[in-house]
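Structure in, sequence out. Go:
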């Protein structure tokens, strides 16, 4: 299998995760890596609903920060690896005091290990640059780092989609 990295971007509730799932359902052995942490009751309920929306035969891994370690332990038996989502990964890394440079370094390491995998790779991330400038420093830092991460991943992806109202628009053609 030829390695192929697909990045799916979009705003909140744009349909990006649903589109990622639809692409991944074409594969038999799927690893789904969730970066979300259920820190409150409402988020735990969202996680539960997301988990129930995935096929039961998929293997789910919940890892909020150490994706390269997790992927390093995984063998090449998966046909497809879905990571949902990079934006939460960035948020999780910021909240444990990673600097912007450390976060970019971690994403570069992540891309290196993903390129070693034989599986189809599907990454999901929020496009955070379409809204207002955040009012506080942490919000601006998050937006800036998330934007840089998306640019880095898009540059290294074979194809990139932008989802709007549940409709995926291809903005970078496969190579």
């Amino acid at each position: 299998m030829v390695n192929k990295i697909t990045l799916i971007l979009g705003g909140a509730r744009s349909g990006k995760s649903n589109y990622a799932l639809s692409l991944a359902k074409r594969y038999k052995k799927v690893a789904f890596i969730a970066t979300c942490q259920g820190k409150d009751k409402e988020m735990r309920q969202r996680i539960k609903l997301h988990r129930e929306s995935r096929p039961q035969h998929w293997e789910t891994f919940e890892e909020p920060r150490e994706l390269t370690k997790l992927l390093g332990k995984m063998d090449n038996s998966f046909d497809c690896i879905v990571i949902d989502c990079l934006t939460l990964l960035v948020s999780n890394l910021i909240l444990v005091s990673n600097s912007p440079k450390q976060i970019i370094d971690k994403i570069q390491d992540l891309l290196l290990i993903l390129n070693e995998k034989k599986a189809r790779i599907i990454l999901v991330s929020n496009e955070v640059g379409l809204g207002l400038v955040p009012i506080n420093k942490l919000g601006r830092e998050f937006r800036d780092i998330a934007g840089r991460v998306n640019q880095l991943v898009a540059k290294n992806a074979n194809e990139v989609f932008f989802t709007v109202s549940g409709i995926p628009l291809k903005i970078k053609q496969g190579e």
